[in-house]
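Model: You mentioned two targets. I'll fold them one after the other.
Researcher: Yes, keep them separate.
Model: Target one:
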Amino acid sequence: MADKALIEKAKKIFENFLSKQGSRKTPERFSVIDELYSLPEDEHMDVEGLFLSMRNKGYTISRATIYNTLDLLVESGLAVKHQFKDKVALYEQALTYKHHDHHVCNQCRKIREFSDPKINEIKEEIGNSFRSGITSHSLVLYGDCQIENCENLEVI
C-alpha cells in the first residue's frame, strides 16, 4: 500500500518546482507521481511499464507526457533515472532514496539493490588519493544467473 503522506509530500514539492519553472500543473503530471510513488521502494519502472499500468487503471495519458513528466521529476529531485547496459531508462522514487548500488542479472534481467560499507571506504580512499571530495558514485555489477529454476528466467 502506498504511503499517502509521502505521495502528498512529493506532490507539494513538485507543485513548488513547477511554479518556480513557470510550468503547467496538470492532473496528468501529478498522476505520474501517484503511479511512481505507489511502487515498492526498490522497484524500477520504465516508461512503457508506467504507461501500461496507468492505462490499465483508466488514466488517459500519453507516453510523451510520461517521458516529459519523468524528466521534470528527475530535475526536481523526486525521481532517479538509471540506465543499465542494454536496458531502457528505468526510474525509481527519490524521496525515500538511500544511496545503493545495483546487481543486474545478464540472463533474467532481475535488478537487485545492495549497499556495502566497504564500497564507501574505497570511495573515500580513492577520493583521498586523488585529493578529491567524491560527491557521488554509481556502481552496477552484471552477472550470470546461477539460481536453479530461477523464476525470473521463466517469464522471459
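Model: Target two:
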Amino acid sequence: MPRIGMEPLRRKALMDATLRAIGQHGSLDVTMSDIAREAGVSPALAHHYFGSKQQLLVATIRSLLGRLRADAVAAMEHLDTPRERLSAIIRVSFQADQFAPETVAAWLAFYVEAQRSEEVRRLLVIYARRLRSNLLHGLERLCPPDDAARIAEGVAAMIDGLYIRQSLRSAPIGSTASVALTEDYLDLQLRPFLKDAAASVHPSSRPGE
C-alpha cells in the first residue's frame, strides 16, 4: 500500500517528467513509458494516476499555468506602482524555470497540440487572457484604455515571440536580454503618457505669475 502523501509527489514527478520528455524530444511524440522512465516509475503507475497520455498532458499544462500564476501573484504582492507591477509580470514570464530550453520546447509543443485538441487550446487561451488582464491592470493606470489595450497586446506578443526565438537553440536569447528588450518596448510605448503626466503635475510657470 502506498504511503499517505505519496500520490501528490508522484503526480508532480510525472508532470515534471512530461515537461522534460517533451522538451528533449521537441514534440509530443512521447509515450507514457518514456515519461514514466523519466520520472523513475513504472508505466502502470503513470496510467494509474492519469489514465492516458492526453490526461497527463492536460494536467501538466494546468500545473505549468498554475505555477506561472502563483509566481506572478507573489512577484506583485508587495509592489506599489503600476509600472513596478508591469516589470514584475515581465520578469516572471522570463524567469529561469519558465525560460529553460526544455520548458520552452514543451510550450511550443502544446501550441501545436492546441490546433487539434480543444481542451489544450482552451487552456492556452486562458493563459493568454490572464497575461493580457494582468498587463491591462497596470497599463490602464498609466494611459487611456485604448492605448492600454494596444500596449498590452504588444508586450504579450513580444513575450510569445521571444519564446519562439528561444526555441532556436543555435542562437538563443537569454532571460536577461529578453526582459531588457521587453522593458525597452514598454518604456517606449509609455513615454508620451508619462511625459504628459509629468507636465500636468509640474506645469511651467508663465512670466508674471
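Researcher: Noted. Anything on target two?
Model: Residues 175-201 form the longest helix (27 residues).
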